[in-house]
Amino acid sequence: MVITCCKRSARFQNWGPLCGGMLRTTVGCVGVEERDEEQEDEGEEDLRDGGVPFFVNRGGLPVDEETWEQMWRHVARIHPNGEAIGKHIRGASDLPKIPTPSVPTFQTTTSIPQRLEAIQKYIRDLQYPLPGCALTLILCRLMDIAKEMTRESLPIKCLEAVILGIYLTNSMPGVERFPLSFKTEFSGNHFCHIVLGVHSGGRFGALGISRRDDLMFKPLEFRTLADLVQEFEGAYRGYWHTLRKVKIGQYVSHDLHSVEQIDWKHSILDMDKLTKEELRRELDRHTRDMRLKIGKPAPASPTKDRKAGMGSPLRNPGSPMRRNSRIERRPSGEKKVLEPKPPSDINGYQIRV
User: Fold this and answer.
1) Catalytic: which of 5, 74, 158, 199?
2) Which of 181, 200, 210, 258 is catalytic?
3) How many C-beta neighbours within 10 Å does residue 311 have?
4) How many other β-carbons are positioned within 10 Å of the β-carbon of residue 200?
5) Does the active-site annotation cover 153?
6) In sequence order, what are the residues at sequence separation of 6 or more whose Cβ sits closer than 8 angstroms to the Cβ of residue 63?
7) Of 5, 79, 133, 193, which one is the catalytic site residue?
8) Where are the domains of the chain?
9) 193 in active site
């Protein structure tokens, strides 16, 4: 994640809001000419850091003292009042404390639906947005990012809400989680959105964040995955968006220290090529695939003392390696021919590094 401090070309009176993962400030025309020499230094920073004055969180979060000083110098360069505005803010002793939401805690008697509603409220209270995190990170690293989110209480986007939802529901073994993403079209432009699908007690629901109330949280009241997807499709229709593709991942492990990667798009459904009945069949098939995955053990972490070339202790010598589940992914509408597998492949073992 990288936050950049960038300039804007409109007049302003004070700091801009945290929006889009960037600390946005604007440039006034008054007093800028008086700081030509400092502007030249800023140009050098632009060249050095790839077109932006400087990176805010290069040293990680929370922001270190050196970066804070760099931000205040940046304010002095671009604000019409120069250094006076910085001295005024930093010297104030009555600045209001910024409220931050508290991570929800639960009693043993709290029901699953009530827990999910509390988690959704916490995610929503964080608001928008934090810069995106990479989809290729392994699960344990994503959980570290989620811990940072709870510590810093920064605004988040839909992808970060999914990671945070996974983290906050890890202590609920009866709740299965899976990524559910949508690609829509409006006025010739395409838009992407993702939520965390949840399944518990034979019902489906969703956790997430969006600027639209009906495009994030869905209570555990949908009998099938198809019903849940059609609910989102109807919500998009209310905003004149046409749903083009739906991507559904596999269930996510409850192990905080797992080294496996999240399967974000095990099934890719092209809504233009599927009838309602075909869509329901594909979603039912995916539901069965997810249920089958529950009984499979997650890959263990590799040990340091394992010798190079030594076979896994969970496989018989000479047994073939199980195929990567990503290869088995297929888009909608294509019929997959099942290949016969030898019996020894059932207990296949694979290490992800």
Assistant:
1) 158
2) 210
3) 14
4) 19
5) no
6) 56, 57, 71
7) 193
8) 4-91, 112-296+324-337
9) yes
